[in-house]
Amino acid sequence: PAELARGDPEVAGALGDELDRVRGRLQLIASENLASPAVLAALGSVLSNKYAEGYPGGRYHGGCEVADRVERLAVRRALELFGADHANVQPYSGAAANMAAYVALLRPGDTVLAMELSHGGHLTHGSKGNFSGRWFDVVSYGVRRDTETIDYDEVRELALRHRPDMIICGAAAYPRLIDFEVFRGIADEVGAWLLADVAHEIGLMAGGAVPSPVPHADVVTFTTHKSLRGPRGGGILCTREVAARVDRAVFPFVQGGPLMNVIAAKAVAFGEALRPEFRTYAAQVVANAKALTEALAEEELRPVTGGTDTHMALVDVRDLGATGVSAETACAQAGIVLNRNAIPYDPEPPRVNSGVRLGTSCVTTQGMGVPEMKEIASLVAQAVREPGAITSVAERVTRLTAGHPAYPRG
Length: 410
Ligand code: PLP
Known about the structure:
The chain is of the alpha/beta class and 410 residues long.
């Protein structure tokens, strides 16, 4: 905006460059999306100034009438979208939502059963470098070697042996549906809470493209900036039984004043997700991911688990003589933005990896469909396979993004 250019040309220049970067390259980071101008406008609104510790109707600051109205709107829309008993829209991020879920349900030292990081889990699911691994006794389950899908027999055996206080299902790099009902059964068998962390898939759930964990899990955590296409942030859905504990865990235990501008932007995003167009969008994201995965397989990029049910393709790059990091670097040179990722039982160390993860949330927002997915697979494969062809791949990337621009001018 003109005010920023006048007030701080240096930052304005950087933001302009970021817009050019987004427009000019292929955005395939599976955890990203392109929020609407309405969402971005709410983020940059006067509500950024407002302190509103507490919850609507029970704040610790004056002047919260509008903040209350906005937060109630966000909660009401989240409940309409997901059908849960209770929603908390204050978490600053997915990690903060997870921390609040641990606080609500557990005490330090309790046992948690969650997915192994190198098999697709998240840092907050028990990594030693994270609060979860430091303060809780975490037992990890993984995927089977043959199918690369969750080994539900192993989950049950580990649950019976370790008697966890909480089981976490949900992942950061797992392209298949998770059977929440089976997890519920295992949790009930051992008397554990069930936390579903659907940070990645929540938008697909909102759009009815994949099943929801809401009827099965005690607590569901999510992010608003990935497939849901909202502002950067988190959220929690839960049963009536644990609602008060979840609210107290978010504030005052984990967080201070809520980011009211972000909550306004979450309300906008929930409103957008309630529209019929979002159902079409979510279905197309999944159709595109399937088409992309199939086309990548034809290019000798082996899909982990053999395919995808979500917005994500996770592929093994070794048949092209690459590593995750070399593939990521080659793609970056051609203007294709994706990230290296561990594949199950990866022989390479974490900073190298044998796979890359690609998501279709952004390119679908840009209006791309199945034909473009085939082109993207060909671009990725050529960039990885032929270092000498980077310039011609980059030209094709420019043509593709120009035909389906992010944030079209005007
Ligand atoms: N949980 C899962 C499964 C995730 O994939 C992520 C982020 O990638 C998070 C939690 C954390 O979200 P945030 O980065 O907003 O803290």
